[in-house]
Amino acid sequence: MGFYPVDPISGEYVLGAPQMDKISIQLTEDRAFVVEAKNLSRKNKYVKSVELNGKPVRGLTIKHEDIMSGGHLVFTMTDEPVKRVLK
After folding, report:
1. 3-class SS letters over the chain
2. 35 CB neighbour count, 10 Å cutoff
3. Distance CA 39, CA 21 (A)
4. Does the pLDDT value for residue 4 go beyond 90?
5. Taking a C-beta distance cutoff of 8 angstroms, is the pair 54, 73 a contact?
6. CB atoms within 10 A of CB 18
7. Torsion-angle region of residue 73: left (phi > 0), alpha (psi -120 to 50) or beta?
8. pTM of the model
9. pLDDT one-digit tens code per residue, 43-64
10. In a 10 Å sphere around its CB, with 0-12 CB exposed, 13-18 middle and 19+ buried, how is residue 51 labelled?
11. What is the mean pLDDT of residues 21-38?
């Protein structure tokens, strides 16, 4: 899906590269968390950017609350590795 739990105590999930174009996690009857990988292909396997509910994700993690609140996590994929400097 593009993220996995790193620490059950903190509730953080590390972002990675999704392997599916789109997936939806139904949280309640009226709330879902949708993960989308734009431009995903065998060639476009690198993450260029990530947005959560239309806002850029800074860093390499999201929180459990982000998922449980519902919304839309969008990965934009590219064919070249992106160099990032973490601050």
Report:
1. CCEEEEECCCCEEEECCCCCCEEEEEEECCEEEEEEEECCCCCCCEEEEEEECCEECCCCEEEHHHHHCCEEEEEEEECCCCCCCCC
2. 20
3. 8
4. no
5. no
6. 22
7. beta
8. 0.89
9. 999 999 999 999 999 888 999 9
10. middle
11. 96
